[in-house]
Amino acid sequence: MSFATKILRAPELSLRFVPVWKRNLLVWKKLAIASVLGNIADPLLYMLALGYGLGSFIGNVGGMPYIAFIGTGMVCQSAMFTASFEGMYSAFSRMHVQRTWEGIINAPIALDDVMLAEWIWTASKAVLSTTAILVVIMALGFGHTWLALWVLPLGFLVGLCFGAFGLVMNALAPSYDFFTYFFTLVLTPMLLLSGVYFPVEQMPGWLATAATVLPLKHAIDLARPLMTARVPEHVVLHVGVLLAYAAAAYYVALVLTRRRLLK
Amino acid sequence: MSANTVSDAVLSVRGLVKRYGKLEVVRGLSFDIRRGECFGLLGPNGAGKTTTLRCCLGLVDPDGGDITMVGEPVPKAARAARIRVGVVPQLDNLDPDFTVTENLRIYGNYFGIDRATLDERIPRLLEFAGLAGKATVSLRTLSGGMKRRLTLARAQINDPELLILDEPTTGLDPQARHLIWDGLRQLLKQGKTILLTTHFMDEAERLATRLAVIDHGALIASDTPPALIAAHVEPEVVEVYGDEAKAWADAHGRRIAERLELSGETAFCYARDPRPLLDDLAARQGLRYLHRPANLEDLFIKLTGRELRD
User: Can you tell me the ipTM of this complex?
Assistant: First the structure.
């Protein structure tokens, strides 16, 4: 098998990823309190400051109080940030700095298994932070509907999407500094143009149209109705877009990581 | 197993070739490691040692040749082979977020070893590593030597038939190295097979039952350490030190010694009969010298040259 065929072959999906995923979970458990606080504090501040502060000028947006509007945006944003961060900084520590992956692939576990574990882990962490935010929103008196629980699997899907983006960056990164590009070029525009802080329809037509290619926009289009007890429209389209981004990015991440480590 | 493989080989490498672009890093390397021996793979930096190990573990695909490890063809059945192999990497990759015991337990999980077996094995391995009193401490508090011993213990979590050690004592102080060597000797007594790469000749001389010297990706020589020395190096060495060593070497040494090499301020004189050298040196004032039998270092330098490798 030539090197090109070897690195381009289809992803191997096996349950061998489980012990590696568990390893990450065990590390997280040790730092769980700090991690959860971190997950909550940031979006909570945004929600309170913008939601109550700005919200008092704005009133209702999209048929709900501004704090509820921004809260649903925060759920998706937090899933996006958590998974991206995990796919970049944390994965880079394990791959490059601590050489944890190197140790694991000396055991009967393949690099594909490690990557699958890291990918699922980024999404798992996204669910953890989504849960934390959801609890906060509910404590503030919003999102009291069974439909809101669908936000958790949605957080997983957003995690798969942005976790895979993060892993692409990880495979290319010479050092931690490299990840700044992703924040500037991807996450910040995503955050500002996907309807986290204001409805996308407020933007000029061309920009609103352009925003429809952003995965976060599709996540928010699902999350907002769910949090207000409505069944979202175009579920298949939105889920399909997120899945397509996730799968394509994971494949690219896997190929680049194989190229980096299996030579 | 193919016909030309030694039947009791734990690891058999036949005609291994690995290229990176146009650069051929391993060029037709062959060797066999028999059950119960400690096989040393020696070579200067960049000789292809680590690449060879990575090929054996199935982490990189060779461009040519055949590898059979613990009876499994590699890379085809590399994962099945790695179930019965333990690895000590060149650079530590222990998990800094876990305690000593957790490191062993979690590594055991990667092999799918059940809890009861781990419960039974881990105390023994901690005992082996001299870390029984450190079972629950964080990894960050361990010294470099302790981490190496833990890595060696971790490599045995699956009770492997073959241990692959990539420069296991690089960066350790003499005391810590001796502890690692004791551990390795203990493993050999238990009947384990060891593949060891090193560029410490005293390490190879103490531990290896057989060794292979490789350079530029090819095998230069392979045999037991004494047989290699006997075959390639004159048995007696006189080292002459000091400012005057070079002048003496040019004026007299080269004529008297069978072979003489200068390295810095030392002249290495090789001979079957050292007496003419010693007589000449004794007659002169102010030259310091040492007479000793030839060792692996002499062999290594003879075979791979004195120039610096990086």
Answer: 0.92
